From TrEMBL:
GO terms for cellular component: extracellular region; lipid droplet. Keywords: Lipid droplet, NAD, NADP, Oxidoreductase, Secreted. The lineage of its organism: Eukaryota, Metazoa, Chordata, Craniata, Vertebrata. InterPro entries: NAD(P)-bd_dom_sf, SDR_fam. Pathway: Protein modification; protein glycosylation. It comes from Cyanistes caeruleus (Eurasian blue tit). The gene is DHRSX. The keyword NAD applies. GO terms for molecular function: oxidoreductase activity. This is Polyprenol dehydrogenase. The keyword tRNA processing does not apply. It catalyses: a di-trans,poly-cis-dolichol + NADP(+) = a di-trans,poly-cis-dolichal + NADPH + H(+); a di-trans,poly-cis-dolichol + NAD(+) = a di-trans,poly-cis-dolichal + NADH + H(+); a di-trans,poly-cis-polyprenol + NADP(+) = a di-trans,poly-cis-polyprenal + NADPH + H(+); a di-trans,poly-cis-polyprenol + NAD(+) = a di-trans,poly-cis-polyprenal + NADH + H(+). It is found in: Lipid droplet; Secreted. Pfam families: adh_short.
């Protein structure tokens, strides 16, 4: 893990910060002096994570706020609660996710991978954009970091069937949600630049990390994973390193629209650079979550 400058006085929100990569991300940001708010959907896990983090970081600047990313209503309530604190927001880490879950729907009727991994973060980011814009400055941009995965390279975006209703495959739905996050990040950066905002948006590939996300994988795969984890899999701490790099590294000051792997800029899937696809997904997403598409007035 690289050495980064202290972040005293800065505020971050990390979704899914009670376990795995998210937990390690919160821990490192708190150690750097940030006030970190964990957004999660389990109150008990949240309070337990806060207790452990305060012990491990020796700082009281970690708190938990309930946010169920599978519920548009819950996301809106979370943003209201956050706004009531009247504090700035310098870093937003869109980290939470589900992987390879059986076919099921969120309370708003969305396929779960697409609804939670992608649409939940799409809405959350848009609702927090004003605060991020107000918090960023010319020399210290506010930063949005979205965690995708190498799975996006095999993902296909079915604009006419984003909910995977025609034929459901957990692998296909997961890969599509991760590709959507890359397309979203590139479109978001384009809009932020067009607006002259002091906010950057980047997307991170944490690598193959040994976390609880694998609980829905077939048991044979679980056994193999258990036997090979120490060889091939990164620890959650190693998996979090690129997210932390994206959140605080001076090297990335003012740089947006990057796909980052192992703390380096690299190339995402070719299809992710399709600007027409980025634009169409953005417009469709605005309709789905019920926000106005202000982007339609921009190039």
């Amino acid at each position: 893990m690289s050495i980064f400058p202290t972040q005293n006085g800065k505020v971050a929100i990390v979704t899914g910060g009670t376990k795995g990569i998210g937990y390690q991300t919160v821990k490192h940001l708190a150690r750097l002096g940030m006030h970190v708010i964990i957004a999660g959907n389990n109150e008990n896990d949240g309070q337990e994570a806060v207790r452990k983090l305060k012990e491990e970081t020796l700082t009281g600047k970690v708190e938990f706020l309930y946010c169920d990313l599978a519920s548009m209503k819950s996301i809106r309530q979370f943003v209201q609660q956050f706004r009531a604190k009247n504090c700035p927001l310098h870093v937003l880490v869109n980290n939470a996710g589900v992987m390879l879950v059986p076919e099921r729907k969120t309370e708003d009727g969305f396929e779960e991978h697409f609804g939670l991994n992608y649409l939940g973060h799409f809405l959350l980011t848009n609702l927090l954009l004003d605060t991020l814009k107000q918090s960023g400055t010319h020399s210290h941009n506010a930063r949005i970091i979205t965690v995708s995965s190498a799975t996006h390279y095999v993902g296909k975006l079915h604009l006419n069937d984003l909910q995977s209703r025609c034929s459901y495959s957990s692998h296909g739905a997961y890969a599509q949600s991760k590709l959507a996050l890359v397309l979203f990040t590139y479109r978001l950066q384009h809009l932020l630049t067009a607006n002259g905002s002091h906010v950057t948006a980047n997307v991170v590939d944490p690598g193959v990390v040994n976390t609880e996300l694998y609980k829905h994988v077939f048991w044979v795969v679980k056994v193999v994973k258990w036997m090979t984890a120490w060889l091939f899999f990164k620890t959650p701490e190693e998996g979090a390193s690129t997210t932390i790099y994206a959140a605080v590294s001076p090297e990335l000051e003012g740089a947006g629209g990057c796909y980052l792997y192992n703390e380096e800029r690299t190339k995402s899937a070719d299809v992710a650079y399709d600007e027409e696809l980025q634009r169409r997904l953005w417009t469709e997403s605005c309709k789905m979550v019920g926000i106005s598409d202000e982007a339609s007035r921009l190039p």
